Amino acid sequence: MKNIDAYTHVRGESVYLDDIPLIRGTLFGASFGSPVAHGVISALDTSDAEALPGVVRIFTYKDITGENQIGGIVPDEPLLAGDEVHFCGMPVAFVVADSVDAARAAVKKIKVTIEPLPVITDPREAQVQGELIIPPRTFQLGNTSDSWPQCTHVFEGRADTNGQEHLYIETQGAYAVPQEHNSIKIYSSTQGPTAVQRAVSRVLGLPMHLVEVEVNRLGGGFGGKEDQANTWAALCALAAHHLKRPVKYSLHRMEDMAMTGKRHPYSADFKIGLNDELKIMAYEVTFYQNAGAAADLSPAVLERTLFHCTNSYFIPNVKATAYSCRTHLPPNTAFRGFGGPQGMFMIEAAIAKAAEALGIPASVIQEKNLLQTGDEFPYGQKAQSEAPECWHKASALYNLAQMHKEVESFNASGKWRKKGLACMPICFGISFTKTLMNQARSLVHVYTDGSVGITTGAVEMGQGVNTKILQVAAQVFSIQPGKIKIHTTNTFKIANTSPSAASATADLNGKATLMACNAIAGRLKKMIAEELNTDVAAITLKDEYVWVNGERTDRDWKSLVMAGHIKRIGLSEHAHYATPEIHFDATKEKGHPFAYHVYGTAIVGVTVDCIRGTYTVDTVKVVHDFGASMNMAVDLGQIEGGIVQGIGWMTMEEVVYDDKGKLRSNALSTYKVPDIYSVPEEIAVDCLQTPNDNLAIFRSKAVGEPPLMYGIGAYFALRNAVRAFNATGEFPFSAPMTPEKVLMALYEKQKEGAIETHEETINHLAVDK
Amino acid sequence: MIKFILNNKNIATGLPPGMVLLDFVRYHQHLMGSKVGCNEGDCGACTMLTGELKNNELQYRSLTSCLTPLGNVHGKHVVTVEGLNMEGLNPIQQAMYDESATQCGFCTPGFVVSLAGFCLSAKTATAQNATAHIDGNICRCTGYKSIERAAAKVAELMQGRQQEEPTAFAAEKKILPEWFAGIKQRLYALVTELNGQLHSSSATEWVGGGTDVYVQKHEVLQDAAIRFLLDDEGLKGISQKGNRCIIGASATVTELGESPVMQQYFPRLPEYIRLVSSTPIRNIATVGGNLINASPIGDLTIFLLALDATLLFSNGEQKRELPLKQLYKGYKTLDKQPGEQLESLSFELPGKNTFFHFEKVSKRTHLDIASVNSAICMTMQGDTIQDVRISAGGVAPIPKLLDKTNAFLRGKTVNDPTITAAIAIAQTDISPISDARGTADYKRLLLGQLIKAHFFTAVETVFR
């Protein structure tokens, strides 16, 4: 089945936030962001801006009727700056005018005087100064300090990953419309309608039942519209609440890029020990997460880094410590993978470092250490592992040995072009790691004409969740998909939702829908069984008819529903699903936080132009653990899209701030995401069919985030290609591997004595000094 | 009064000619299919097509409507995704649908419009050409593989076309709505009625394709009195006179790439042009704009510097010739009077013994601004360099010729020591800074590598 939105998408008829027909009297907002990353506001002059034609009012924190606070996990983030600013772009004032142009013109006339305070952009510096969002956390398994003597080989090093701009093509936005009885309706481009509802409720001082948040769909989210959608909704709501007029704000791309957080840059120190047989005996890692100026989702992201710090390997002795470091960058936030990719990059760097020193391909070490079923993760859960199956199938199917040989002979045959190969196994846990968030509700109405309307907490952002939910209902009722409509996500219809995130949305909301549909179908079957004087177990619904003992009756779906209504049987159901089995004790850092894991292996091949430092990613060959896909078209799209987004993060996507904390890569002209010519010529995806039962909806495992991490292979493939040209040059584990880093590494001289790091390129991690 | 045909509807509007087409279509015509993605021509979500009569042929080009003022579509046919909709899905949309080439859907209308642009072009029906038409469209969800598959299917749709006009073929085969067949006649009538160009008598701003000025000063231009240069016939054309090539200031990059003269003298032109922005930008970006914009990194500027182009300015009364290499006085400072306008430029076409090559490296190979770009124009006498001009961008406040390097190379034979020495001297010609496109150290190294690449290419092609 195709994505149910595809028809209106290709016709340009799908409605996004900026497409909602305007209500007469609508005003337009624009925010004035701090030009300075850290300082004390001594004066704010809005008089020139207010005098401009069309300007209705300029709001500051003084106008907030509730609490000036939008922090979700930690209350450390004001909506509008009070006395201090903590990052460049932090909203200081919100202009409302009768046109978008007038609002933006007014923003430029606002004058602010800020006494500057020291700016920190480097997470390690923040850690030294004790600037932590939460106390550090440590996951431990076995005992690393006792293990080092048993290791034949021990390597230490440092690795760094940069951030990543979400670059959803639809920018952030909200449209707030005052309603009667002091309530307010907000259209928001958000992954978390309840988060928006909560933030608006807090800022306005209104109870949640007066705040209606509605989401039709997003033009991309990728985590960027999880908590970070709250700001714009709260600003619009604040203005609408005061002015009693609808207020809309759809961000300009440059506002969006400058004011919103991104994937967290990480820096890490690692130490890895292997025995004679290349079994990894011990791994220690310390993560420095660049959280930005406020907590946002950083503590949860940090936690997932720890969960995935050993990727798909079993290591008996692990000690992983993570610091969430407060800097003066925009608060970094959720991004597909949610800290997992950073944790995986570091262990892959450690393995690559060992492999390079030992003069063997990393794949030899990778293969020897894959998780087996029953192995324990550092957080206590026992693996139900498909890691070896994925690896061995990929290795056989794509003939890894032959691929290695071809690369070697290619590299031996020419000087100026080198190929590189890397394997990237993945293991990603499915569930919100905050156990309480693993619940969802679905409201299913069957109408008397047999049509079905469904509302859930899921937000459609291209991932195809609504398609899967529709499939659930279509399967239970066994009716044509055309009879079913998935409605907008709305906090007045479904309450207390978790955001559409963690790859778990289809599982949670799909299961709730399954329960609701089963309840309605069950009542109807019971009615028919009584009518026909037979056992309920004999009744099935199939192809829009009632079947008894495998025989089709004359009773069709529509008349069944009508009969149910006449007999006063409930044709609606509001079902609640909570993931079973999961738990986690943060005081012990042990538990069973994930419903299941998704596994897979990718083989990534690249070619480097050793004159220019440019490169192509030629091929990505994958064996992926789908469980049993319920929609191959949707799932394949998630895999291809995730891979390319992961490759982007590892190659060309470079977030650059200067040492004043100002974003330099602040537009699409300076921040590059993959275009059609930069994607691998070949992406091959093979399914690992797994017979094991799991907690996924229809055993169709979650697919949103895991494939992104295949892209990490691109970094290591590039590194291998560079080393084929320059075997002795030392260069740091620092992603992304831009053409600049490749060229610098190709021509990095072999240094005598101590090896210096690339000061200039390292600085690109977060800061271009 | 601006007049044009929007899809199947005649438009006459008194709104400011400097208003961007995207805003007009979305917020005044309430056609919401074209999306606002980046406001700077870098994402393609707002892609539209314009059709105009060229030598009595209806020619369609894609463009980024976020950077296109209404004045630049005066007398033309503008096509948005709504104009492509028929009963059910058209075959382009069907291909996108069948291949699951849409996820969040926000970029999708732009892709559909760009592929329609392919169907309305006279390009050979290959998957490669269809893909080339979507090189300006960014998708953040799909990873493009499904879109590539859809593009290949769209190419198949056009395979039956022989000499027929693409518009007629597409309408007849129901690839596009039938009314497309009548557009040529309607445009002819419109152009006849308009009888000439839109001229503001009190222009304070000049706009060519708008690809740079609408990024830099969007707000100013919305209500400004503008003189539109893109369709000024006096500024168009690419021709050969003797051994010189003459290019009108308003010739677009696409026209440059399609010019028979350029193709004849620059056999690798298609690969150079592919490195310059994207199809919808090349369709409106002008050669003159690239030079006058004075970016230290303009691709065509670097190209033309190596060719030692001469500019022809006019202030309405007098004309003035100026070598391009003397135009740039400092960062974004020009030897140009406020009343002067670039009319055309010319350069000597490379002879038999002259080797020309262009190199560009950027973070992303396509649709990106160079970290460093460079061109070489080298005339050989036997194995001795008789004359050489290497230009480089991104390594100084202005696009420049590497004077010391060039002086050193004249009279030398091409060999490894010469190249190595030239690269060392080039380091004294330049003064790069660290910015979002790379660190100064990188740019220094990269320029040396590009010089190496010039000579390697020369050795492959000239000295074989």
UniProtKB/TrEMBL annotation, chain A:
<dbReference type="InterPro" id="IPR016208">
    <property type="entry name" value="Ald_Oxase/xanthine_DH-like"/>
</dbReference>
<dbReference type="InterPro" id="IPR037165">
    <property type="entry name" value="AldOxase/xan_DH_Mopterin-bd_sf"/>
</dbReference>
<dbReference type="Pfam" id="PF01315">
    <property type="entry name" value="Ald_Xan_dh_C"/>
</dbReference>
<feature type="domain" description="Aldehyde oxidase/xanthine dehydrogenase a/b hammerhead">
    <location>
        <begin position="11"/>
        <end position="118"/>
    </location>
</feature>
<dbReference type="GO" id="GO:0005506">
    <property type="term" value="F:iron ion binding"/>
</dbReference>
<dbReference type="InterPro" id="IPR000674">
    <property type="entry name" value="Ald_Oxase/Xan_DH_a/b"/>
</dbReference>
<dbReference type="InterPro" id="IPR046867">
    <property type="entry name" value="AldOxase/xan_DH_MoCoBD2"/>
</dbReference>
<dbReference type="InterPro" id="IPR036856">
    <property type="entry name" value="Ald_Oxase/Xan_DH_a/b_sf"/>
</dbReference>
<dbReference type="GO" id="GO:0016491">
    <property type="term" value="F:oxidoreductase activity"/>
</dbReference>
<dbReference type="InterPro" id="IPR008274">
    <property type="entry name" value="AldOxase/xan_DH_MoCoBD1"/>
</dbReference>
<dbReference type="Pfam" id="PF02738">
    <property type="entry name" value="MoCoBD_1"/>
</dbReference>
<protein>
    <submittedName>
        <fullName>Xanthine dehydrogenase</fullName>
    </submittedName>
</protein>
<keyword id="KW-0500">Molybdenum</keyword>
<dbReference type="Pfam" id="PF20256">
    <property type="entry name" value="MoCoBD_2"/>
</dbReference>
<keyword id="KW-0560">Oxidoreductase</keyword>
TrEMBL record, chain B:
<keyword id="KW-0560">Oxidoreductase</keyword>
<dbReference type="GO" id="GO:0071949">
    <property type="term" value="F:FAD binding"/>
</dbReference>
<dbReference type="InterPro" id="IPR002346">
    <property type="entry name" value="Mopterin_DH_FAD-bd"/>
</dbReference>
<dbReference type="Pfam" id="PF03450">
    <property type="entry name" value="CO_deh_flav_C"/>
</dbReference>
<dbReference type="InterPro" id="IPR005107">
    <property type="entry name" value="CO_DH_flav_C"/>
</dbReference>
<dbReference type="Pfam" id="PF01799">
    <property type="entry name" value="Fer2_2"/>
</dbReference>
<dbReference type="InterPro" id="IPR036318">
    <property type="entry name" value="FAD-bd_PCMH-like_sf"/>
</dbReference>
<keyword id="KW-0285">Flavoprotein</keyword>
<dbReference type="GO" id="GO:0005506">
    <property type="term" value="F:iron ion binding"/>
</dbReference>
<dbReference type="InterPro" id="IPR016169">
    <property type="entry name" value="FAD-bd_PCMH_sub2"/>
</dbReference>
<dbReference type="InterPro" id="IPR006058">
    <property type="entry name" value="2Fe2S_fd_BS"/>
</dbReference>
<keyword id="KW-0274">FAD</keyword>
<keyword id="KW-0479">Metal-binding</keyword>
<feature type="domain" description="FAD-binding PCMH-type">
    <location>
        <begin position="168"/>
        <end position="352"/>
    </location>
</feature>
<dbReference type="InterPro" id="IPR016166">
    <property type="entry name" value="FAD-bd_PCMH"/>
</dbReference>
<dbReference type="InterPro" id="IPR012175">
    <property type="entry name" value="Xanth_DH_ssu_bac"/>
</dbReference>
<dbReference type="Pfam" id="PF00111">
    <property type="entry name" value="Fer2"/>
</dbReference>
<dbReference type="InterPro" id="IPR012675">
    <property type="entry name" value="Beta-grasp_dom_sf"/>
</dbReference>
<dbReference type="GO" id="GO:0051537">
    <property type="term" value="F:2 iron, 2 sulfur cluster binding"/>
</dbReference>
<dbReference type="InterPro" id="IPR016208">
    <property type="entry name" value="Ald_Oxase/xanthine_DH-like"/>
</dbReference>
<keyword id="KW-0408">Iron</keyword>
<dbReference type="InterPro" id="IPR002888">
    <property type="entry name" value="2Fe-2S-bd"/>
</dbReference>
